[in-house]
Amino acid sequence: MLGVPLGAVGGYLAAHPQEVASLFAEPAQPVGGVTGRAAVVDGDTIMVGDLVIRLDGIDAPESGQVCEAAGTAYDCGRAAELFLRGLVAFRTVTCSTGELDPYGRTLGFCTREGVDINRAMVAAGWALAYRHYTGRYAAAEDEARQQSLGLWRGRFDKPEDWRHARP
Question: Can 85 be counted among the known catalytic residues?
Answer without folding.
Answer: no
